Amino acid sequence: MPLGHHGGATIRSFSSGASVLKRIALTELRIGMFIHEFSGSWMEHPFWKSRFLLENPKDLQRIRDSGIGELWIDTAKGLDVPGGQTVDEVKAQTDARLLAAVTTPTVLPPRASLEEEVARAQKLCSHSRRAVMEMFQDARMGQAVNVEQVGQLVRDITASVMRHPHALISLARLKSADEYTYMHSVAVCALMIALARQLELSDAQIQEAGVAGLLHDIGKMAIPSEVLNKPGKLTDEEFRRVCDHPQAGTDILLECKQVSALVIDVCLHHHEKIDGTGYPHRLAGDQISLFARMGAVCDVYDAITSNRPYKRGWDPAESIRKMAEWCHRHFDEAVFQAFVKSVGIYPVGSLVRLDSGRLGVVIEQNEKSLLSPRVRVFFNARTNTHLAREVVDLAKLVGRDKIVGRESPAQWGFRDIDELWSGVASPAL
User: Fold this and answer.
1) What CDD domains does UniProt report for this protein, alphabetically (predicted)?
2) Rounded to whole angstroms, how far apart are CA atoms 426 and 424?
3) Which tens digit of pLDDT belongs to each residue from 353-372?
4) Which residue, of 3, 279, 302, 395, is most buried by count of CB atoms within 10 Å of its CB?
5) Is the confidence at residue 10, as pLDDT, over 50?
6) Mean pLDDT throughout 151-163?
C-alpha cells in the first residue's frame, strides 16, 4: 500500500529516462551487466563509482569479495537476468516497512521546544567533540579510556535527548568532514539513547546503550590518520584496514578492564548484518545481540547522512527510505521500525514537497502521526519562487495539505537548508 493512502508521501522510483532497473542478488551478477547502484551505504564498499558496465572479471571478483548482498542493474544498458525485483516491487516492500512504523505511532513527546534545546545542544556538541577527541587521542597513544568521563558525557547527552529527542541528534548530523570520526561517535550515542527509549529499555540499559554508541568506533584510532582522513575513496588494502577497526576497538576496551561486555559487543559487532554478510564474524539473525543490532542501524543512519571528504551526505528522509529498502538484509525489522519512530519518516532537516506545491524543511515531529510533521515552508515549486517563511502544522491541515514527496536540496540548489530549522549554517564538505 503506498504511503500516499495514509496522507503521506509516495516513495519515488529512482528509475529515469529509458532505464529499466532491477534489483538482483549478488549471486546473479554477470559480466556484461550495467551496475546502476549498490544496495547499501557507500562506506561499506571500496568502489569509486556505482554506475558502470561490468566488463572486467577482476571487478566482478572485487564486488563478490566486498560483502555487498544485492545491487541494482539497468537492463536497458546491459545484460538482463531472469527473476530479480522491479522498482515497483521493491517500492511496495519499502512502503510496507515504513507503514509498520506509521500504523503504531508512539513518538515520545519533547519536554522542551526544539528552539530551546538547539541552543543548549550546540554547546553540548562543542563540548562533546572536544571530549571525544581527547579520549580517542589518548586511546591512540595507548592510554586507558576514562570510564568516569564517558559516563558523565553520556548522562549529559541523555539529558538533552530526554528534553528533546531531535535537537542534538540533528545538530550532530551537521558535522564537517574533518571532524567526522569524533562527532559520529556523539551522534551514534544520541541515536542509541533515543532508540533505547523507544524500545522502552530500563534507565540502566539506556545509559549502557549511550556508552556503546560513544565508544563503538574507538578502534579507528588504530588506523593511520592518512587513511582515516583520506580525502577520497580508499584502496582495497586501505579498506581492509578500516574493516579491522571493530577488533582493534575491542582490544582497546578489553585492555581498559572497566567497560561492560555489552559495550564491547557493540564495538565488535556493529557492522554485522542480519543476513550474515557483515563483518568481522558474519553473524546472522539472533546471533547478533539486541544492542549490536541497534548499533548497526544508528551507525549507518549517521554515516549516510553525514558529509565525507569525497561525498556529500544524503538527505535524512532519503536515508530513511534507503535503509528501509536494505532492511531485509541489513537490519532487524523490529529495531529498524523503532528507529523510524524515534527519528521520524521525515526526520528534522528533511526537505519535502507538499501537495500545495510548496517546499519546506521539517522542523518538528508530530506525536501522533509520523506523516504530519511541522514544516517551515519557504519555496513554491510550481512558480519557482521564494515564499515568506511560514511554519505549517500538517496535523492541523488534514485534507487540505500533506507531504507528497521527498526532495533533494542539491538538485534545487539550496545550500543553507539546515539554517531553516537550526539557525546553524551547514559545514563545508
Assistant:
1) HDc
2) 6
3) 999 999 999 999 887 888 99
4) 302
5) no
6) 96
| First and final C-alpha spacing in the chain | 38
Nearest to 23, CA basis, from 40, 45, 43: 40
Q: How many helices (H) and strands (E) does the chain have?
A: 16, 10
pTM: 0.89
pLDDT digits (tens, 9 = 90+) for 80-108: 988 889 999 998 888 888 877 776 656 56
Is residue 54 within 8 A of residue 31, CB to CB? The reply is yes
Burial of 70 (0-12, 13-18, 19+ CB in 10 A): buried
SS3 label, residue 189: helix
Per the listing, cell 551526505 goes with 313
DSSP 8-state class, residue 3? G
169 Cβ contact list (under 8 Å, min separation 6): 161, 187, 190, 191, 194, 343, 348
Distance from C-alpha of 194 to C-alpha of 164, rounded to nearest angstrom:
10
Phi first, then psi, for residue 19 (nearest 5°) are -65, 140
Q: Which three cell numbers stand for residue 98?
A: 515504513
